[in-house]
Amino acid sequence: MFDLSLVEARDALRAKKISSRELTGAYVGAIEQLNPQINAYITTTPEAAMAQADAADAALAKGEAGPLTGIPLAIKDLFCTKGVRTTAGSKILQPFIPPYESTVSSNLLRDGAVFLGKANMDEFAMGSSNMTSAYGGVTNPWTRRGDNRPLVPGGSSGGSAAAVSARMALGATATDTGGSIRQPAAFCGIVGIKPTYGRCSRWGVVAFASSLDQAGPVARNVEDCAVLLGSMAGFDAKDSTSADMPVPDFAAACKRGVKGMRIGVPREYRMDGMAPEIEALWQQGLGWLRDAGATIVDVSLPHTKYGLATYYIVAPAEASSNLARYDGVRFGAREPGRDLTELYENTRAEGFGPEVQRRILIGTYVLSAGYYDAYYLRAQKVRALILRDFTEAFEKVDALLTPATPTAAFGQGEKMDDPITMYLNDVFTVPVNMAGLPGMSVPAGLDAQGLPLGLQIIGRPFDEESVFAVGAAIERAAGFSTLPTIRAGI
Amino acid sequence: MAYSLEGATGTWEIVCGLEVHAQVISKSKLFSGSSAAYGAEPNSQVSFVDAAFPGMLPVINRECVAQAVRTGLGINAKINLWSRFDRKNYFYADLPQGYQISQFAHPIVGDGVVEVTLADGSTKQIGVTRLHLEQDAGKSLHDQDPSRSFIDLNRSGVALMEIVSEPDIRSPEEAGAYLTKLRQILRYLGTCDGNMDEGSMRADVNVSVRKAGEDFRTRCEIKNVNSIRFVMLAVEAEAKRQIAVWEDGGEVVQETRLFDPSRMETRSMRSKEDAHDYRYFPDPDLLPLVLEPDWVAGLKAKLPELPDAKTARFVSEYGLSAYDARVLVMEQATADFYETVAKGRDAKLAANWMMGDFFAALNRTGRTIETTPVSAASLGALIDLIADSTINGRIAKEVFEAMVETGEAPGAIVDAKGLRQVTDTGAIDAAVDAVLAANADKVAQYKGGQEKLFGFFVGQVMKAMAGKGNPALVNTALKAKLS
Amino acid sequence: MSLDPATVRRIARLSRLSIDDNQVERMQSDLNGILGWIEQLNEVNVEGVEPLTGAAMMAMRMRDDVVTDGNLQEAVLSNAPDREGPFYAVPKVVE
What is the pTM of this model? Predict the structure, then answer.
């Protein structure tokens, strides 16, 4: 059962070879078995899932199957799910039960999906390790060869990626603000795509940095992601930043191939001290695409190295404002105070973890009187230059290929002393968010210690189809089939 | 003559600017679909967006934008086809988001002007710096519980227009005149109802003082003054306070104050932390607001006739005095009522009746033009009866009072009470003869030179005729028989 | 740009985050590290560049003036840690 991909399971359900009850039941069992170790889920909803599975089987029997009928998914705990606790990985939302469903998860329910539970994540989506969650860290199902020390799954969508990788879900929703889909996908040996800004609705997604946040799927392979994104995406009038564009057939794009495509290699992504394995994998990826009929073109994105600094001004600034609503008055946890100010200060100090507090303080500082021009305004100008770099490159190429991360998954407890070391995990992914472009991570090989490494494909705005085409080509050529140490169905 | 205040050290001038917050008339809120109506059960007109729940997002209401544009056009201001929303960040119990969506750097409306007429008939132009759209906050109740304040978010998210004047105001009277005129324009446009007692229009008053010829000195802001009268009193009270500070050798400290009408003075607000650092930045949940010139032109074409234009037209078309025209134009409903009455009739007579008996009756019965017991058609019919001599002026007053009381049409009242004017010269002669015969002594006095007794005879004849004698014919008959 | 403890406290107050004395030093060091790293942006020539806010997008869509929401009194109040009938309750505010 666990060997079926999402697409294979969907086909098997439609052909009545399996039932959703069997499929979902298997995954519910996997969660019971593995969650104590992996901690991929903050909240599990097994009874509701089985009820949804039964409803799915009834629909399938009537021949009324939707694109995802009966498919069990994990939902990142950043998406508000009606009647099901939603914490954003934070203590401050521990008691919060949303009275509404996010648009993206609504879309999945509309298409017949089954929800297994809420996936663990870095608190308020701020992190690249899933170690900042108030509900405990997530353990990567992969371990280094001959070393069973627990590794991080990446973040912020660490729970979503670990769940898919360990076969505790057939797919999952995730979000990406600086790399939070692509980096954990790479660390967990699975596929993840952050679509173009505006492709998926942000309504009902707990906001971190509004001009950067995007929802997207993580799944075992490129086609699975295409099917999920097809359901998740779409214009939403309740989100003023939602793009009024039709949703293309992403799954069909996976079969396109890359013949005649021009693939760009941005020279600035070759960083000093980059591990030779990563460089080698990158070259290998370019070779695969060349063999499949693409042309490789050198391009320059001169402002790449400023992406992280720009991100660490813009994102905290927006977050400091977006998180002001967490004040213990209308929902969420509250700490007592003798007056209103104390109520706010105590509630927020107790409810937010140190990384969130750090970013709120940075954000407040860079927006404060006297510093706005020097930091925030300047960062938004550099951001415009980063976008311009990409726009100019895309006059010469149709997609870009880069490494997804500078390293493979690291150990829990490593890189924890200095925030900046952690921030550097996102060096390849952040510029893509700054420019609002679609980006995908595809597992392409293993490092010397047997850990997965991913390659990143970056596309033009609203051209996810090219990204899927290139991603599928890489996937076919790489033939990546290694499975993690810890997983269901062994 | 310029307004000034005398102090111990010399003559002081007031410098004043007003920031008016005007609630926009619309069905739903600025960025959410909940109702903007006043007076509902607490927290019953609150959506998850208004209550700033996680993941909620703003979507702008086109009508609120249109109302702001109409207002800008109504004060002859520049409409900015490109404007932007910024977040104004601060924490308060009635501000669920922890920020207000406002417009800081790029407001929807730029420079405008409001012309005011003062009591002495002179006019003055008060500049408007800008108008922008922003969200209103919720309401806090602090007096319902000993240790807690209660929050109602119904008002949270209702659209406000913030209208900022230049510091062109130089007296309490000018401040009152500006607010009155602005309110009038807003009501004419239908963009705000101007009900200061309901809080749909509020004013923050900026006041400073200076000696003639000086630059501006430090100003203080008096927040949330909720009547025009209080604004005028607050300007004066604050100016006097500041003058006293300067004259004592002190310095006025820039701060926010409240006006206390029971003490007729301003007091400092309990300090809201250090000076607010609002950390304005463009709202990343919204895109720039871009208006099509055609759309703006369409709004302009449909604007109603505004007070200044209507006043000028009343003067030229109806021959009214500027003062009378201004009175009738004060409220659009009154102006419309007048025009219905005046159409095809003696415009000045119509004006006199409205400004005299009609307004007096409304006052007396506690009614308004909207709830008038006498319709425009009825008043017009009454004037017709005077014009065709069916009744005389005095009888008309009696008929009018009956109209106010019963709501009936004048013709019916005249007939029912038999009040038709008598124009039969025979009857008049008979009445005159009778009066003169009964007052032979006074006739002799009159003929002896006491010409004032003519009025007595007129009164007596009218009394004998139950007031229904045609006054002109009575005069003619008396004159003839007394000569 | 180097933050002193007083500035850290002021920023914490603006953010409504209570921060006790042992934390101030740690925060100060973390924040100064991050701000120092961010300084590299000063190298970039941004002359004549317009700031980018969202990714390049069209003008804002406007919605019709229709009441489509609200009337959710129970739903908006039911998550509140302290409520009094139809109101949210907070420690008394003195103005």
Answer: 0.92
Q: What is the ipTM of this complex?
A: 0.96
Mutate to test the interface with B, among C58, C84, C87 (most CBs of B within 10 A): C87
pLDDT of residue C1: 57
Collect all residues of chain A within an 8 Å Cβ-Cβ radius of residue C60.
Answer: 240
Which residues neighbour A387 within 8 Å (Cβ) at sequence distance 6 or greater?
A434, A435, A436, C52, C55, C56
Q: Cβ–Cβ contacts within 10 Å for residue A490, how many?
A: 8
b/e A51-60 (16+ beta carbons within 10 angstroms → b)? ebbbebbebb
Cβ neighbors of B341 (< 8 A, separation 6 or more) are: B350, B353, B354, B376, B379, B380, B383
Question: B283-303 pLDDT, tens per residue?
Answer: 999 999 999 999 999 999 999
A315's CB contacts (< 8 A; 6+ apart) are A177, A178, A208, A209, A212, A359, A363
Q: Which of B109, C18, B441, B170 is nearest to A348 (CA)?
A: C18
Q: What is the pLDDT of residues A10-36, one digit of tens each?
A: 999 999 999 999 999 999 999 999 999
Give the closest-approach CA distance of A114 to chain C in angstroms: 25
Task: Check A461 against C11: CB less than 8 A apart.
Answer: no
Nearest to B68 by CA among B97, B103, B34, B108: B108
Domain edges within chain C? 5-43
- Print burial letters for B411-435: b (CB count within 10 Å at least 16), e (below 16): bebbeeeebebbeeeeebeebbeeb
Q: Which stretches within A71-190 are classed as H helix?
A: 103-110, 158-165, 182-187
- Integer Cα distance of A377 and A383 in angstroms: 10
Q: Which residue carries 């002190």 as its tokens?
A: B250
CATH 3.30.530.20 at B425-482, yes or no = no
CB contact under 8 A, A461 and C56: yes
Q: Please say if A157 is a catalytic residue.
A: no
Would you say A460 and A398 are in contact if contact means Cβ atoms under 8 Å apart? Answer: yes
Crossing angle of helices B172-189/B307-318, nearest 10°? 90
Whether pLDDT at B451 is above 80: yes
Q: Topology of domain C5-43, per CATH?
A: Histone, subunit A (1.10.20)
Is B93 within 8 Å of C70 when comparing Cβ atoms? no
Specify the domain boundaries for CATH 1.10.10.410 within chain B. Answer: 425-482
Contact assessment for residue C65 and residue B63, using Cβ atoms and an 8 Å cutoff = yes
Question: Which residues, 6+ apart, have CB-to-CB distance to A481 below 8 Å?
Answer: none
Structure tokens that stand for B206 in this block: 């900026």
Q: In sequence order, what are the residues at sequence separation of 6 or more whose Cβ sits closer than 8 angstroms to the Cβ of residue B175?
A: B16, B18, B169, B205, B231, B232, B235
